[in-house]
Structure formats: structure tokens, C-alpha cells
Amino acid sequence: MDVTDIQGRTALITGGAKRIGRVIALELAAQGVNIAFTYRKSAREAMRTEEELQKQGVRVLALQADLSDIDACEKVIQGAVAQFGKVDILVNNASDFSRTDLSRLNRNPQQFREQFEYFNTLHMGAPFYLGISLGLIMKEEGWGRIINIIDRVAVRGQAYPGWSLYLATKYGLYGITQAMAVELNPEVTVNSVAPGLTMAPAEISSKSLDELRNKIPLKKEAGPEAIAADVLHLVQSASKTGSVMLTDGGSSVVSI
User: Which superfamily does CATH assign the domain made up of 10-248 to?
Assistant: First the structure.
């Protein structure tokens, strides 16, 4: 049976204090996995999530870190390894779904540079650095799992207007996933989960959200629980690397 027992393993989940990351952490903890997770500004949510995870009977470590700074990634690694000895599972979930208006980006080269470097480091640099650093240790240890949370459009060669830097760097993370799958095999599997509409941004009106739902074949958001279930599947699977789980309610087949 192609299901690996992960009880007693340790996972590092970036952006794990709330939303999708929190649900992923709870899903893995339910399987007996010890959890280290990062948060940027959500200290109150991090404390609540830490308490919820501890009730699952696993060891937990919350790490404050701004992952748009590569130096912070190294501190996260050191903190997790100091607490748990090693990290077996890495879930690169931390993300920023902010709009980037092209007409504003091209007005000021310095502003463009800052925005580009921010998204590039958060969505590509940090996952790549964490993946390299922890992945090579996993490879030496003989077992490891890396899962990157991307976006469904990166899998289908699509895009939508208004989020250019977000999408461009999520495309980059998809490419990093494929490259690392080749570099770290066979001991470490590297896969991705590609959500569609999961948790709508606050600025989207209820009318616009209903219109968007109606374009999705399953007529609903996937929900963070569905993303977490796919992450668990990839962690437990011994037969997948360089693969992607599309969790989008079918939206990628209708080009919305």
C-alpha cells in the first residue's frame, strides 16, 4: 500500500498561523507530526494555533519570521533544528495575494524594484533556500517531503489581470518544484498543490464572488481543508515527485 506512516516526523510550515497554513498544520498534527510553523505579523493567531496544535499531543514551535528576507530563513532553520533535531517535511505555504497594478508599477523604478524583490523572495527565494537547505539534509537522512503551494494558473499556462507579480513568482515556484524534484530524488519527494479559489480576498464584493463561483464547474471554493488533505496525501505518498495536485473545483479547465 502506497501510504507512508508519518507519526513522529517533524514538519515546518511557512505561514502556518492562520488560513490555509493553519489547517495544514492541524491536518498533519492529527497524524502525529510535530509542527514548527512561521508567522510574520499574526502573533495572536500564532498563539491560538500553537495552543490548538498542542491539544493534538504533538510538539509545537511558532517562529516569527519575515520570509521576504533570506536571512530570516536561516534563522527559521536553526530554530526548528535546535528544537526538534531535524525537519522531515517542508510545506512552503507563506504567500502574499496582493494586487499589483501595472500602471503604478512602471511609474517609479525604485518602487518596481522593491515590489519585485519582495514577491520574488517571498514566493521563490525563501522556498528555494529552505528547500535546498533542508532538502539536502533530508536526502542525507534518507527520507523527506517538500510541498510547495502554488496557483492553479501556473499549471495551465493561464493568468488573470491585476495580480501580475503574484502570478509571475508563483510560476517561478512551480519551476523550482520541478527542478528540486530532479535534484533531490529518490530520497526526497518534491511536489506542489495548486489551489483555485479557496479563501476570497476581502476586497472582492459578494456579487463578484458569486459570479466567480458560478464559473467554477463545482460552483464553490475548494476550502482550506481540501488543500490540507492534498498536502497530507503528498506527504504520505511514496510514488509521487514533480507532480501537482490541482485543487480548484475544475476552474482550470474552463479558463476563468
Answer: NAD(P)-binding Rossmann-like Domain (3.40.50.720)
Enumerate the domain spans of the chain: 10-248
d(CA 247, CA 24): 14
In the numeric block, the cell 529552505 is attached to 130
Q: State the sign of the Cα–Cα–Cα–Cα dihedral 174, 179, 184, 187.
A: positive
- Sign, CA dihedral 4-234-187-137, equals negative
123/229 Cα distance (integer angstroms): 22
pLDDT in tens, the chain (256 residues): 466 789 999 999 999 999 999 999 999 999 999 999 999 999 999 999 999 999 999 999 999 999 999 999 999 999 999 999 999 999 999 999 888 888 777 778 888 899 999 999 999 999 999 999 999 999 999 999 999 999 998 988 888 888 899 999 999 999 999 999 999 999 999 999 998 766 666 666 677 656 666 665 555 667 899 999 999 999 999 999 999 999 775 566 765 5
Distance (Å, whole) CA 187 – CA 69: 29
Residue where the block lists cell 502506497: 2
